[in-house]
Write a structure and sequence with these properties.
membrane; transmembrane helix; elongated; HAD_hydro_SerB1; hydrolase; 47% helix; HAD_sf; 8 strands; alpha/beta; two-stranded antiparallel sheet; six-stranded parallel beta sheet
Length: 307
Amino acid sequence: MAALGWFTRRRQPATERSVLAGEASAEAARKSSAEAPAPQAPAEPEFPVVGDERAAAFFDLDNTVMQGAALFHFGRGLYKRHFFRKRELARFAWQQTWFRMAGVEDPAHMEDVRSSALSIVKGHRVAELMSIGEEIYDEYMADRIWPGTRALAQAHLDAGQRVWLVTAAPVETATIIARRLGLTGALGTVAESVGGIYTGRLVGEPLHGPAKAEAVRALAGAEGLDLTRCAAYSDSANDIPMLSIVGHPYAVNPDTRLRRHAREHGWRLRDYRTGRKAAKIGIPAAAGVGAVAGGTAAAVALHRRRR
């Protein structure tokens, strides 16, 4: 009976003091929960990964690294040096404008542009064009490098990774730009030369569209790179093949098609244009026209960055 009395007492209604103790305990629990630091979201993995020698970065040139088309700036420099007449300059400028405004690449029109460009350098020495290209870079290109994109490339270099330009522009022009920016090297369109003199023909075709992706694959195989750990940067939907084969694709100053594709696939976007210029998305650089001056051989100039 004593035991029964003990259970009976335990079931009695709570006293005012017990109610007070329970409320105080609950309040303390709520307060401590509110003051506890919120769980931290997992930190985004470091990128680029420092010391990852199997990773590299590939940058398109026109409107990605540099404002405008390298070929057009190169043409301005050649005109200044009397390589062709004003009538040819006007035609060349119109062809560039057509590409920028149309937003499409008609094969027949592109062939006409390439033929015009190659005819300009036919018969000239490769060494001469290389020397002139250095001067043209200082005159027309150096001030047109996008600081934001340049910083992206430098981040890869600082991480100990290699960085290449991949462009339809002439490989000599691309190599000059890469060297001036401290990059590893360049993949570009190669034009035929015999005895150090341009013949006016291409070696293969312009490094454009799917050809860029093939060039990156070939380089990655030769250099022992893991493309899933590599990054690629471009402004144009024409470079979707190249962007699609790397693990870290970036749309930089993207045209309308690339911006839409990037959003659909969760790719990162970067836009370094002013508001006025950014409104003009959908106007591509003159990619595919870059055949003014090709390489002295079919090989691409690949130079290890001096650290």
